[in-house]
Amino acid sequence: MTLAIVLAAGAPAAGLPTRGGATLADRLADQWLRAGASQARHAADLTELAEIVDAAAGPVIVSGADLVAHTAVLRHLATSPVGPTVALVLTDPPAAGRAVVREERGQVVAAGLHGQLDGEATGVFGGALRVGADDLPALAAAARAAAAGPGGDAAGPAVDRLFTALAARGTLTFAHRVRLLVAHRVADPVGLAAAEAAVGAVDEDRAELRLSVKERDDFFTTFFVSTWSPYVTKVCARLRLTPTGVTAISVAFAVAAAVLFGVGGRPALVAGAVLLYLGFVLDCVDGQLARYTRHFSAWGGWLDTMADRAKEYVVYAGLGYGATAAGHRYGWALAVAAMTLQTVRHMTDTWYGVLHDEAARRPKAVGGGGGIGDKLNAASTRVQADTGSVSYWLKRTVVFPIGERWALIALAVALFSPLVALVAVLVWGALAFAYTGALRTLRARWMRVPVLDTVDATLHRDDGPLAARFPALRAAGPLALAVVGALGPAALLVAALLRAGSDDGDPGGLRWAVPVALLVLLVAGLGARAAHGGPLDWLVPAALRAGEYLFAIAVGVVGDAPAWVVFGYVFALTLHHYDLTARLEKRQAAPPLHAATLGWEGRSALLAVAGIAGFAGIVMATLGAYLIALFAGSVLLAWVVLPARARRAVGVPARGGVRQPG
Q: What is the pLDDT of residues 381-400, one digit of tens each?
């Protein structure tokens, strides 16, 4: 239930007649209803608005009565998935009494009336904002404070003073920019006529279809997918397909491609490459369809993240099987290595994004001192602003995003073989990891934001009951301990691989080293209860993932477990860990059955016992199946059972079909 409030105070254009005959204020109220608001009301001043907000239970939209815009602009603001509180930001010239903003990473980090903002403005407040239910008390307090300020409701547009007062309270607000469509604030009949003419000159539906494509995407996606995928999006919308349905079809394409990669033979490999490309197109279409139809939900965002990773790793499995079937001894080993590398990379991507968002909310903590971090940040900003330049596309391509990965796999398989595809993914992935890791480390040291202090570090470290009982070794720091912990499994894996490639070819003689590697790995647990306040502690989850995966692979090699079993177990671990990070990104609670997953240290201890006893393959398969069962149970509970109970408790009917893919 979303309430829209049209605020007339300080908006002389509110009573102007529009082309349809209604006043501008009345037309806005009607537009908000067509944009998805369940109710629209008028407020004469900020005091009345505060009283209305006090009684509201769900999200509230507030707009000044001087806004002329496509209904699609209002609908996009009302349904924006970026955060609970979102403000409309325009590029119009600033005017006296109007609010201006400064943004960073899509967040409004500062707002003030024109001429009063501390620092350079990046946009102008568009006179409308959606406020989440949790921020309603701050909105009511801001309304009362603005009403009691100098000049009260007569001091310029009330909605601007309301917005600046809300921002002054530290409310996290995201910026919603207008592209292709039209939105203007007007003050007189001439401005109203000009704005209405601009609105009428744009084909609203065509603009919305173009807006379904991400404004900034990677090179392959931009030039080889998004040039024609909107037509597929339009067809899917006409067929009434849901984004979730399109995701399911894309998964089917990826699975079929993986099967063909495993079958081998040039016709099968070429057909698999084509299916992989089409599957990636559909992977883009599901997000475009969600944006075009405005079907967003946390469930959809989570599903899209999980489906993307599952599809990619199923393809790796097909490549590994195909390379092995073609007579290459290390086909499965390369597939496991590619999956491990990509997962650890994604863990750093997730936490670096959180780090940057946190830094944006606390700009004073980013004191640029002219060092290398400051220079790197300035250089990155310049490159990102130079959209379309060679340096811009090089920067976006060198990091090896998903479009480039799928394109490389498709080309390498079609022209060469699954083995070449796996080697190419590993080489480019490793180089990209080294490049991004080095630059991000330098920039993170410059930002000095203790990002893990803002979340449940125990949860996102994936600590189990054993780590909770370890003493806290605070002097070394959690990152150093996690890195040291990963060195033991890495050394064991290298030794096992060297032994496997030697003349005797029996890595089982290294079983005595398994408990030693486990003890070194458990060193990482000594940082579980230490403060994660260092500038580089955002790397801790990735280091722990690397340590656990390397240990599992090493135990599999030493215990002579089938390579496909090792792949399956690591795949189960990745599902579990992506579940954690996807919930983090969508601001969801921990998986309901998370406590039963034993933690990274508990799982590693079980594998160590199995490796020493000679049952590594059996225990690895059993534990992997157990983790997948817990994952499925958590999905069922989190997205089906518990929401249904909550709806029954408040008497709300079930809803279906909405989602938000990336």
A: 676 667 778 888 998 899 99
